[in-house]
Design a protein that fits this description.
single chain; 37% helix; Rossmann fold; alpha/beta; 212 residues; 7-stranded parallel sheet; 7 helices
Length: 212
């Protein structure tokens, strides 16, 4: 099936737009050293590029008083809190306290007012306080950055929509280890769960916000 045929099959059914709401937050999903360190088992060049693209976006969000919330994956040394996930992907067992590869990348250091959520599964919402915190803050729009597009970003986008948030994904600010799953999942997110936009569109939205 050609790309044109695929696109035609979605027209009028899966091409709606949510648009931005009134109060956004930026979610930075698992931008950790494991994905950006050459030679590491999880290294992905696409993630390195996404990190670089996200620097400017976070700076603009903070300048406008937009909440910035990071996630990272950490497990107890025995790995039992990883359940079936670490059985399926054993390399995740190495993400323990004190492991340098589990730390947030130095290019995107959390600021004093940023929140860091520790998770054990793909979605930033699963088993965490994220939904309750966003609701208490009055947030209605999630600007989702991070990695990987086909894993934790997609899972978080699906859950974000299911919790009632407008999900916005700046395409340059998410990354994966291969172009095929990256593009396929951006297509699917945009079709069903949120809006995949250019970074420039998201930056323009942030620039137009009043100071928080």
């Amino acid at each position: 099936m050609t790309t044109q045929t695929l696109s035609d099959n979605y027209k009028g059914v899966f091409d709606g737009r949510l648009g931005f709401g009134k109060k956004p937050a930026v979610i930075v999903i698992d931008f950790i050293n494991a994905y950006t360190t050459p030679g590491a088992a999880l290294y992905a060049k696409g993630v390195v590029e996404a990190v670089e693209q996200t620097v400017e976006l976070l700076a603009q969000a903070r300048a406008k008083g937009v909440p910035v919330i990071y996630t990272k994956v950490l497990y107890h040394k025995h790995g039992l809190d990883g359940g079936i996930f670490v059985q399926k992907v054993p390399v995740l067992r190495t993400m323990v306290e004190g492991e340098p590869l589990a730390e947030i990348v130095p290019e995107l250091p959390p600021a004093a007012n940023d929140i860091i959520i520790v998770k054990q599964y793909a979605s930033a919402f699963f088993g965490t306080s994220l939904a309750a915190m966003l609701t208490a803050l009055g947030v209605d729009t999630l600007i989702v950055t991070g990695c990987s597009t086909s894993g934790c970003v997609r899972a978080s986008a699906v859950d974000g929509m299911q919790y009632g948030f407008r999900v916005i994904v700046p395409r340059e600010c998410v990354g994966d280890r291969h172009a095929a799953p990256h593009e396929a999942n951006l297509f699917d997110i945009n079709s069903k769960y949120g809006d995949v936009l250019s970074k420039a569109e998201v930056m323009a939205y942030l620039t137009g916000l009043g100071l928080g």
